[in-house]
## 1
Amino acid sequence: MSEPASLYARFTLSHEQYEAFMSSVPARPSGFADWQSWFDRRQMSGGSHVPPEILSDLEAASVAEVIKAWREDAWTGMPPVEYDELRRTLRIAMLQASENYHEMLRLLTPLRGAARFNDPGADDFVVILDFLWEEEQQIEAYLRFGDGASRFEEDCAPEHLEEARGYLGEALSYLQSRAG
């Protein structure tokens, strides 16, 4: 992959859960034991070993601080971050997340922390895919959330892929309308 992939996340959170997640300290990369198995399934230049230095903690006091930094970064193609209190849904779109798996790990880590807060029976997920650049839209990462944890899965559920493509399409239209 040589062009940046896009990221879409959807979490089911009550107002209280949303506030707790946003004010929580970001999850630590070293808190997840499945990074290497995810890397092993990817084709990377320089090998697929997870270097210890990328498992260091994020330099942020809260998840809200991380998301604020993402929103202020024009490169990522944000701001589509929406919390709908009536639907109890937090959705995040990042049109140009990264083409680098090390950077993807750093993007996924704070989002994986949502597993501590989301509704136990929710069908929540994060997907990173080649939305802007590839017709096939290869899946680079797909995480499912449940039972207070997140886990990588190889095959993205069709309904999740459809939802992600739809929301990323809306995000792209929004940014294009603002560009004039």
## 2
Amino acid sequence: MLACRPVEDRHPFPDAVQREIEQHRLRAMGRARGRVLDLGSPAGRVRLAAVINGGDPTERYDTVVSGGDLTRFPDLVGALRAAVAMLVPGGQVEVVEPVNHVCRGHTLLATLWSRHRAVAGRHVERDVPAAMRAVGLTLGDLERVDVPTVVWPLRQLVHVRARIVPSMASMGHERAGAVA
């Protein structure tokens, strides 16, 4: 049994959110070059979880793509470190994820919505760009997307394309082994 298991649920995000994520994910997949690890597939998430749990990243990818799939992992930084460890030098990560909101009453709203079926068990409300920087990724394109949904934690998405700087690639590989 894995120490880190991605949440595997059957219900997607609400329709408006799912459509927006899928549109951006397809754009990311269209730009991807070389070998691609798509975290939208259960097999991709299992590969990532194995590296999070200390497995050796035997396969290397040019691009890792996530369309809302990092919300399935409780430790965002750990998941991103594992993704970096699976990249070839100069590889890229492209993600479309819900992000945290900064406003009055944010904590109260997030708490109220945390049990809603659209977000229950998912890890939303995180600072995705900061986590990407923390693992040595250099941010390129960053787009914030407002989604018309009543589900507060899913009202804003971020679409980020980041690249591993070749000199940082070895750091990512060393860090990934230390993640438990």
